[in-house]
């Protein structure tokens, strides 16, 4: 009887293991076969230039396609009478050349038909024909693409999402967790994990109390973002009164 139960348990274990392996393997095969998106870049994105920094970071894992019709439009603008557009268009052409040399991005010049249609219309056609999407900073093109059921992504939205939530001059209540590396500095952390170095806040370190700070500046590094702040004026007033009382020889007034 014991042998029979043991055999049943082993069979159940073996069947469960096989099902798990099949499920895991099937999922991996499915992920491995997922096609990359075709992203068609418009003129405004190239003239903006920030796409180059994104490409160099390695975050562009899709096929980045620059249609020849877009390059043609840049050439026309670069030779045009408007000096501002001429400068920006020449910058856009330089961005195209730089993008082709980025090793971490799959950038290709797409040989589309440069027939006499508006470039925006051509981009929507290409996105539809290739089941792709459009990368643009043109708000109107994004709206038109939405009406045509074509997805569009925006460098401006990416920049906005990565922008610091707090700007110099903003106030926030934080807890000073520890003492900083420099004299009289305290260290706090924002809800998203960003470290904040607060001047003259070492006396609040580890006291488990909320302190109002004012952001002064922020620093973006390869290791992440760091913000610098100072104590809000109301946090310094009690300290200043005590210092003044010590100098005058008077006892601090507890009513303050």
Radius of gyration: 30 Å
> How many DSSP-defined strands?
11
Structural class: alpha/beta
Major beta sheet, specifics? 6 strands, mixed
Give the H and E element order: HEHHEHHEHEHEHEEEEEEH
Shape: elongated
Number of helical stretches of at least 4 residues: 9
DSSP strand content: 15-25%
Percentage of residues assigned to helices: 40-55%
Mean pLDDT: 78
Span from first to last CA? 85 Å
In what order do the strands lie side by side in the largest sheet? 6-10-11-9-8-7
Secondary-structure blueprint of this entry?
Blueprint: H1 2-32, E1 38-41, H2 43-48, H3 50-57, E2 63-67, H4 68-78, H5 83-100, E3 106-110, H6 119-129, E4 133-135, H7 139-147, E5 152-153, H8 155-162, E6 171-175, E7 178-179, E8 185-189, E9 195-199, E10 210-221, E11 224-231, H9 233-248
Question: What is this entry, summarized?
Answer:
By secondary structure, the protein is of the alpha/beta class. About 45% of the residues lie in helices and about 20% in strands. It has a 6-stranded mixed beta sheet with strand order 6-10-11-9-8-7.
Account of the protein in words:
The protein has 256 residues and is an alpha/beta fold. The chain is 46% helix and 22% strand. It is built from nine helices and eleven strands. It has helices at residues 2-32, 43-48, 50-57, 68-78, 83-100, 119-129, 139-147, 155-162, 233-248, and strands spanning 38-41, 63-67, 106-110, 133-135, 152-153, 171-175, 178-179, 185-189, 195-199, 210-221, 224-231. The strands form two sheets. Strands 6-10-11-9-8-7 form a six-stranded mixed sheet. A five-stranded parallel sheet has the order 3-2-1-4-5, with helices on both faces. A hairpin with a 2-residue loop joins strand 10 (210-221) and strand 11. Helix 4 (68-78) packs antiparallel against helix 5 (83-100).
């Amino acid at each position: 009887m014991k042998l029979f139960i043991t055999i049943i348990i082993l069979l159940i274990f073996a069947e469960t293991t096989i099902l798990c392996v099949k499920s895991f393997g099937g999922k991996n095969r499915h992920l491995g076969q997922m096609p990359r998106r075709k992203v068609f870049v418009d003129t405004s994105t190239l003239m903006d230039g920030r796409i180059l920094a994104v490409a160099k970071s390695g975050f562009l894992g899709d096929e980045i396609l620059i249609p020849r019709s877009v390059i043609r439009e840049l050439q026309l603008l670069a030779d045009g009478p408007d000096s501002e557009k001429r400068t920006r268009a020449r910058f856009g052409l330089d961005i195209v050349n730089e993008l082709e040399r980025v090793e971490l991005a799959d950038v290709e010049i797409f040989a589309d038909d440069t027939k006499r249609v508006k470039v925006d219309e051509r981009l929507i056609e290409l996105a539809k024909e290739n089941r792709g999407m459009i990368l643009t900073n043109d708000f109107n093109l994004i709206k038109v693409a939405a009406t045509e059921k074509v997805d569009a992504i925006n460098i401006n939205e990416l920049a906005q999402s990565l922008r610091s939530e707090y700007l110099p001059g903003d106030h926030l209540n934080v807890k000073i967790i520890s003492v900083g590396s420099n004299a009289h500095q305290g260290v706090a952390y924002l809800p998203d994990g960003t470290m904040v170095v607060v001047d003259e806040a070492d006396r609040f370190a580890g006291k488990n109390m909320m302190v109002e700070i004012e952001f002064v500046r922020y620093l973006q590094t390869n290791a992440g973002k760091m913000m610098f702040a100072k104590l809000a004026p109301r946090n310094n007033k009690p300290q200043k009164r005590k210092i003044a009382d010590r100098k005058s020889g008077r006892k601090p007034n507890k009513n303050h």
